[in-house]
Inverse folding.
């Protein structure tokens, strides 16, 4: 039987090497532990065998390990202004050997090969067509679990705390450019080269919903309500924080996500009311 408790202790010991007073570090620890939990839960819901569910959980625990070094080196989690965090995570784990410090008893024999590939691909726009079915399943699981919690992160953590030293590189809020809105209408994620303003980044984060593949993942996102909150973001007084033009674009985005998912997001307004 795999020891998730021991693996979590090793993860925490690793993160304690970094400045735990740094809000970037604190938020990433919380995010990582939640993604691990979601990955394991999704795997079990999909009927995967116990050792595969444990591997899905472990991939969730490992997937962002490079974020801590990214924050130390660059003071930001914005990959386009620093480093590809998925590649850095996989390099630290499987080229520098950090993965060897985690327990392996109870995992499938191919765990390192599957985990490395899934981690390297978890932030990419598309999975390669050449990926074998088994690895693809784990890659989809970590991508879905990661996106599930990113909606919570974006909805609850102030923008300045999320981007760190890169906040000055984003222009002030303005309506999204036509290329970004074309991605919305085509039901696909927004390439980083098209995102320049804070609002375009906001649209981009919400567009991750189009890439969520498992029904259990979409249902969890709907039930938690964070995505719905992001599509009608309000301040403490209940007022929308975006301009009329931006709010109109968010309505278009909500409509397209509902069309893609085949469900209404309006049914769950719990997080909208709390946000």
């Amino acid at each position: 039987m795999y020891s998730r408790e021991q693996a979590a202790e090793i993860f925490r010991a690793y993160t304690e090497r970094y400045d735990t007073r740094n809000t970037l570090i604190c938020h990433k620890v919380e995010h990582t532990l939640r993604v691990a939990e979601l990955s394991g839960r999704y795997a079990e819901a999909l009927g995967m065998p116990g050792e595969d569910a444990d591997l899905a959980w472990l991939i969730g625990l490992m997937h962002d390990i490079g974020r801590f070094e990214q924050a130390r080196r660059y003071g930001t989690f914005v990959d386009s202004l620093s480093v590809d965090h998925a590649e850095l995570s996989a390099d630290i784990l499987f080229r520098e050997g950090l993965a060897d410090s985690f327990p392996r008893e109870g995992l499938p024999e191919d765990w390192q090969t599957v985990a490395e590939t899934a981690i390297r691909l978890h932030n990419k726009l598309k999975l390669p067509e050449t990926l074998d079915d088994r690895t693809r399943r784990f890659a989809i699981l970590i991508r879905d679990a990661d996106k599930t919690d990113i909606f919570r992160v974006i909805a609850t953590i102030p923008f300045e705390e999320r981007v760190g030293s890169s906040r000055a590189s984003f222009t002030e809020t303005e309506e999204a450019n036509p290329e970004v809105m074309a991605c919305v209408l085509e039901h696909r994620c927004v390439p980083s080269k098209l995102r320049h303003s804070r609002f375009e980044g906001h649209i981009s984060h919400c567009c991750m919903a189009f890439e969520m593949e498992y029904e259990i993942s979409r249902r969890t996102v709907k039930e938690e309500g964070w995505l719905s909150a992001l599509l009608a973001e309000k301040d403490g007084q209940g007022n929308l924080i975006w301009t009329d033009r931006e709010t109109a674009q968010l309505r278009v985005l909500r409509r397209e996500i509902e069309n893609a998912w085949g469900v209404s997001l309006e049914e769950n307004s719990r997080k909208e009311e709390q946000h």
In short: The mean pLDDT is 91. The radius of gyration is 18 Å. Residues 133-156 form the longest helix (24 residues).
